[in-house]
Amino acid sequence: MKLIGLTGAIGSGKSSVSALLARKGAIVIDGDAIAKQLQQKGSPTLAKLVEAFGEILLPSGDLDRQKVASIVFNDAEMLKKLNAIMHPAIGDEIMRRINVEMPSQNIVVLDMPLLVENPRDGMSALVIVDVDPELAISRVVQYRGMDEADARRRMANQANREDRLRVADRVIDNNQGIEQLEAQIDDLWDWFATLADAKPGAGTLTKKSA
To answer: What are the b/e assignments for 129-152, b being 16+ CB within 10 Å?
Structure first.
């Protein structure tokens, strides 16, 4: 198995990149999708969130994600509280899926928004999807209907562009259209074949020095 980390800022288009890689045969482990699964109505994780944050459910009983975002992205302590609940649960499910694939010859893409901020050991490579920050903001406002101020707060809570590019093994430029993106994915897929297999324990969080 080759384990490829894939990340980028909000609005960078990493989901588009992972979808194109999936079409080529990659197994995609989507951190955001896992988080949503863990937060489903009636789940233990959702119960913990309600205990921590109070009235954050929609009338249907589902999580009101926008309300949670408005709480945590305006308060560093609230964001820490959210992460303390979600990160261990997400991490356990990620490792379960990686371990299933470990004996295979598959290309496994770990698609996560905070791989630079929370790096993981043993990966074959780290791919950064890069886009001009102002273009990223305009995309999330236009295509996701997100409030611009909210988008900027979320971006401010992520690593900056320079820090991401500094640690990249490969950069995908997503400043232009789908044709340019698809051409880069073809090259990226060929490059994957040259990489070493993931190391034992691949995917575990890198221990931070004291």
So the answer is: bbbebeebbebbbeeeebeeebbb
